């Protein structure tokens, strides 16, 4: 365990959506592992990080990409975790044009934009750890009866994970994804997971250089 902890020591970690819920717990775990933690969020975290970037992606505000400090954080990023991704439960025949655009942008294109910005620095330093968050059971193409647009975008992230893992492993870069189950108000007999439990599994993926291209279901065996 100590060897894994030291593998992240003094590394620069950027957590998108890293102030609360799963992202907040992951930020705190990275701080405990002696990382320099930078994070984005709508509200300032209740714990101390090295740099906080106030950001409201829900309002489609991408001005953060013009911030020199954020650009520097991306270029110097050793560990990237994209914990942000809005959920939408809506039937296909009810979807509006703007909802399609928002889901595609925030749940798929935004992680892709961040990946494209951090990869050059990781390739140069021959080290990188990337953690994305998919949707529940989005490791394979499957029907989604009430949230098809959301699941489609999250399934697309699985393609990015597998593609990045294979192409950039030669540079010492790993890319994995957590596919979380219910973390609150779980219906039926599904087990409710805490945000910390999910974050701990994410930390495990970040610590282990031999785990690459993993799509990890963290849902206590949820079956729909």
Give an account of the 3D structure.
It is a single chain. The protein is built from six helices and seven strands. The chain has 224 residues and is of the alpha/beta class. Strands 3-2-1-4-5-6-7 form a seven-stranded parallel β-sheet, with helices on both faces. The N and C termini lie far apart (35 Å). About 2% of the residues have low confidence.
Strand coverage percent? 15-25%
- The total strand number stands at 7
Major sheet, described briefly?
7 strands, parallel
Query: Which percent bin holds the helix content?
Result: 25-40%
Poorly predicted runs are 185-189
Q: State the distance separating the first and last CA atoms.
A: 35 Å
Lateral arrangement of strands in the main beta sheet = 3-2-1-4-5-6-7
- Going by helix content, strand content and strand pairing, the class is alpha/beta
Count the helices. How many?
6
Average pLDDT: 93
Order of helices and strands: HEHEEHEHEHEHE
Anisotropy-based shape: globular
Q: Using the CA coordinates, give the radius of gyration.
A: 17 Å
């Amino acid at each position: 365990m100590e060897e894994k902890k030291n593998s992240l020591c003094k590394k620069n970690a950027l957590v998108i959506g890293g102030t609360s819920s799963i992202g907040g717990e992951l930020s705190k775990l990275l701080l405990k592992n002696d990382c320099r933690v930078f994070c984005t969020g709508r509200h300032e975290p209740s714990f101390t990080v090295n740099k906080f970037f106030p950001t409201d992606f829900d309002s489609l505000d991408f001005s953060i990409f013009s911030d020199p400090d954020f650009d520097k954080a991306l270029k110097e990023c050793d560990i990237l975790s994209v914990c942000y991704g809005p959920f939408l439960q809506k039937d296909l025949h009810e979807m509006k044009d703007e909802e399609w655009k928002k889901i595609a942008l925030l749940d798929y294109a935004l992680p892709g934009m961040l990946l494209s910005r951090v990869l050059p620095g990781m390739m140069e330093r021959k080290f990188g750890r990337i953690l994305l968050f998919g949707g529940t059971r989005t490791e394979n193409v499957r029907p989604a009866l009430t949230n098809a647009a959301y699941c489609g975008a999250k399934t697309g992230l699985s393609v990015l994970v597998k593609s990045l893992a294979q192409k950039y492993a030669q540079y010492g870069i790993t890319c994995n994804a957590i596919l979380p189950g219910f973390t609150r108000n779980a219906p039926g007999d599904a087990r409710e997971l805490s945000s910390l439990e999910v974050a701990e599994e994410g930390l495990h993926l970040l610590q282990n250089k031999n785990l690459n291209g993993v799509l990890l279901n963290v849902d206590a065996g949820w079956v729909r």
